[in-house]
């Protein structure tokens, strides 16, 4: 085989507000590679199949001097994220040709040669699920939802702080605690909704389009609304108080949740997308309520929960996905050249579901 | 005995900012009572000895229509708080003449006749400690510090997230985790400092006067500063990161603690005095850090912790106070007529230590 173009998505400049396709990141075709002859130096050659585009990636588009929990992207180098690929050649005994692998630091390029295989794991796929599944519901978003729900929610089928809920009189069975899930149609939120329903809870869920609202209803949320057309405070005043808050938004929505919280409420801080394009700052005014209501607010990073929950995750979730008991949606885009636009869509919330870049067929 | 004047402190009007003595509360001498003949109707007659003035009382000075975790004071009625008294006469078999009792809803008056004895408990005082002790270090402030520290701090003598601390090279022994205690000279904070030192931690503590700073040093804090003359962010940048934050302040100080927090930090939300005289609202901007640093922020109300921790509290603390191993300070004012001024002093932080109203001798 002769050399082929090795397409790459490079980090080009630090954005001030929203990332700009072609400026923040650029699609580059200047590199070539010969897959048959490229030296592996004891490493592996991986063909990229599927890449994940996630909200948190905005946080890596910062000056290298600013510290955070994940490294900043390097100017001029490929951006990275969660991905799935197939091993084409291997000089590392841990991997063999045909193995499918995933990693949280998959470079955004067609072909990857790497000696350092830290973070690459062979995927066990006994249910023959599509590889994109391992980006979404069985990938980082799925792990995020599952592990933080298990670790922090303390979901109670019988509420320890029951409240009079006359508006629930039309339900035929008694309800457990109430959870409010933001970005409930997203890959994380939609799994949280389904885990909460399996735990017997009443689920209130919000999203930003009618299509997303419809999807949240389909997967079982009891109360769904479009936060762009309905005020969150109004819905929570009517359907609350809430015992658990799954926060992907921060800012005003977090204040609304504090107002609507029941005594002893648990807030699971997964993300604060309202702050990502405004310097990671959005004022929250009602924190005093954490005292009067004995609320706990817990932040987490999924990587720190993996050692504890990985085994239970892979035991529990793949069979439920294979049988269709857990539903999920994917929003698949074709080719590395779409990455810049998809990153922006995810920051603005205009994507329809878990955003996946399909880079190559298996 | 003929009728005597029964002095009372009445709630007179809802303040907008700081409470005003003589306007928010008034000292009233229009009621008389004959202790020998007043009808008890199956209840008790209690002589008030000591009353506690606490920051949280500002929260009860609100319109009755605004709900919160403690009831609003009633206009025209005596204000209430933690107090200690002695039973003068009793028609209730639970109490006998000479019993000393405390309650969190002690009315601010010289003599109390009550049939409803909910919340009144006989004080067990085997070490013959002064009754004022049961207002401060063995009263609500002491319970607040002890119970929340036990419940939430998870203090580690060997830090799970060790950091390079070159500035500690002059310490001869290795240090445990680091805690930052605000209002560290107050009745709650000063006990937190001592509990943290007993747990082997490095303690950073702040207060608002040189006298208070000196007291924090005396009770063992490693790093002390006056937040009015030294910037909190500067001290924390040099002496942090912090693993535990004892918050009595909220607002900007809470933001500074978020900036200085270590991975996995626990924030114990005891109070937010920076918000009490500005509508219980002070913006916090850096909450996104709870995610990147896996911070948990826990609010509590001491009453909800009592069932779990009361026994250990009374077993542990009184002997340590009696032996002098746990130090405490009291700021004693004489007579109910001083209550309005002392409430204001506590809101402004101009009192020197735990504010106690000495109402009558035993």
Task: Describe the protein.
The structure is a homodimer of 362-residue chains. Chain A contains 9 helices and 17 strands. The first copy, chain A, has 362 residues and is α/β, with parallel strands linked by helices. Chain A has 2 domains: 163 residues, Quinone Oxidoreductase, Chain A, domain 1, CATH 3.90.180; 164 residues, NAD(P)-binding Rossmann-like Domain (Rossmann fold, 3-Layer(aba) Sandwich), CATH 3.40.50.720. In chain A, the strands form 4 sheets. In chain A, strands 5, 6, 7, 8, 9, 16 and 17 form a 7-stranded mixed sheet that branches. Chain A has a 6-stranded parallel sheet with strand order 12-11-10-13-14-15, sandwiched between helices. A two-stranded antiparallel ribbon of chain A has the order 1-4. The longest helix of chain A has 21 residues. Chain A starts with a strand and ends with a strand. In chain A, 49% of the residues are buried. The interface between A and B is medium-sized, with 33 and 33 residues.
């Amino acid at each position: 085989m002769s050399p082929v173009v090795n397409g790459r998505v490079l980090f080009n400049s630090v954005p001030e507000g929203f990332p700009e396709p072609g400026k923040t990141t650029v699609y580059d075709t200047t590199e070539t590679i010969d897959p048959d002859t490229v030296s592996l130096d004891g490493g592996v050659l991986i063909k990229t199949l599927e890449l994940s585009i996630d909200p948190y990636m905005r946080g890596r588009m910062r000056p290298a001097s600013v510290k955070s929990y994940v490294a900043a992207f390097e100017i001029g180098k490929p951006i990275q994220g969660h991905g799935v690929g197939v091993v084409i050649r291997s000089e590392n005994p841990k991997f063999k040709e045909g193995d499918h692998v995933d990693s949280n630091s998959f470079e955004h390029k067609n072909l990857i040669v790497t000696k350092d295989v830290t973070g690459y794991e062979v995927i066990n796929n006994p249910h023959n699920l599509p590889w994109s599944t391992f980006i979404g519901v069985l990938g980082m978003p799925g792990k995020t939802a599952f592990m933080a729900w298990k670790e922090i929610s303390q979901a109670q089928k019988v509420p320890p702080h029951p409240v009079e809920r006359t508006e629930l009189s039309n339900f035929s069975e008694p309800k457990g605690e109430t959870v409010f899930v933001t970005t409930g149609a997203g890959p994380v939120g939609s799994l949280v909704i389904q885990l909460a329903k399996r735990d017997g809870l009443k689920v209130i869920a919000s999203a930003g389009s009618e299509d997303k609202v419809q999807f949240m209803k389909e997967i079982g949320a009891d109360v769904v609304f479009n936060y762009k057309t309905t005020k969150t405070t109004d819905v929570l005043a009517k359907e609350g108080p809430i015992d658990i808050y799954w926060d992907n938004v921060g800012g005003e929505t977090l204040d609304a949740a504090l107002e609507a919280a029941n005594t002893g409420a648990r807030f699971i801080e997964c993300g604060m997308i309202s702050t990502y394009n405004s310097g990671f700052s959005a004022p929250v005014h009602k924190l005093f309520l954490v005292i009067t209501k004995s609320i706990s607010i817990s932040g987490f990073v999924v990587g720190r929960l993996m050692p504890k929950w990985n085994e239970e995750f892979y035991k529990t979730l793949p069979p439920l996905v294979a049988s269709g008991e857990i539903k999920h949606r994917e929003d698949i885009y074709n080719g590395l050249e779409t990455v810049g636009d998809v990153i922006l869509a995810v920051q603005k919330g205009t994507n329809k579901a878990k955003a996946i870049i399909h880079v190559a067929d298996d």
